[in-house]
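Aim 2 progress update. The chain analyzed this quarter is reproduced below.
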Amino acid sequence: MAVYDVIVVGGGPAGSATACLFAEQGKRVLLADAARFPRRKACAEYISPGGAAILERLGVLARLQSVGAYRWLRGMQIQATSGACHMVEYRDTRASRVRYGLSVSRLVLDLALLDEARARGAEVREGFRVNDVWLRSGRVVGVIGPAGERLEADLVVGADGLQSIVARTLGVRRLSAWPRRLGLVAHWENVDWPEDYGCMLIGRRDYIGVAPLDKSGLITVGLVRRMPLTRLGSALRAIEQAVAHHPELNRRLSRGRMTGPVLGAGPLARRVRQCAGAGYALVGDAAGFFDPFTGEGIFRALRSAELLAANPHTYARQRRKAFAAKEHLVALIQLVIQSPRLMNFTIHRLQKRRRAARELGCVLGDLEPARLDLAWRLLGP
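Predicted structure tokens:
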């Protein structure tokens, strides 16, 4: 029976970053994932400037730069149903300069993070499915793998996404009723995208996020829509019909071609009753997820790994402190994008109230914490 200081379940950004940071402390770390890498993942494949800064601290940004399969983005252009647009630019108000987010395929990103974890001394087991959590006297003491293999650890970290086996087994996961949405992601290749920004196109019942993934013309297209999918049939048909409602995007994509399958995940909104307890902690999407519109998923995964590695005993409190204000803002944004009239009004206000709009860009770029009065300064009288 193997004994570790930390077992991390899940090799995505949250899990690999957690393994990196604990291994750097000299801990004996096991990182286990059922998949073999590289592998695609249903994800918007976007990292905010704040998240890019964490990748730099981890040394992973240098790995990505050596591969070159990524694009820097200075912001996201939001288009309302009226056609009105606003560029959310990531401008660091303290340094008075534009900061850039990163658009990169999860095939590239996850493998780079996994390799960094290995390089720092973590043991990585690919193709190793954790089937259960090992409990002793109410405390998590390890995991149970294939054929009943038991692996013991002082701390088990669930970094295994929306369907987390760790959260499910411990009974701390609960499904959120709102917004009950499905995310679909597809890649197009040979698409000309010279702009250094991505786009969020708001529809009446859904929205589409688009961004370039590298300089070769590879584009990621994500559709978020209400569940279920049965009326439109297949995921492919759903994403094709959604793209058809945006003539300029449809024109661009028609010059390239879809490559690979359409991937899906849902329902997206998840909550957990507690993100840490006796012998365990949850990071990334396993600790809760709301909606990908504001693009903070990978940042939250990386930042929660930093908070956990800094002090596992205060992790739950520090995580709430770090994310609570922005969670309120994100919930308000969800209300806005689900009402075409309110969305059009908001775009108009963003164009008029430039100072508050710049602050919103900083918050959405994870460059500074959210302030509870920001929404009032944007939308109030």
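The chain has a mean pLDDT of 91. Residues 3-41+48-70+103-176+269-323 form a domain with the FAD/NAD(P)-binding domain fold (CATH 3.50.50.60). These observations will guide the mutagenesis experiments scheduled for the next reporting period.
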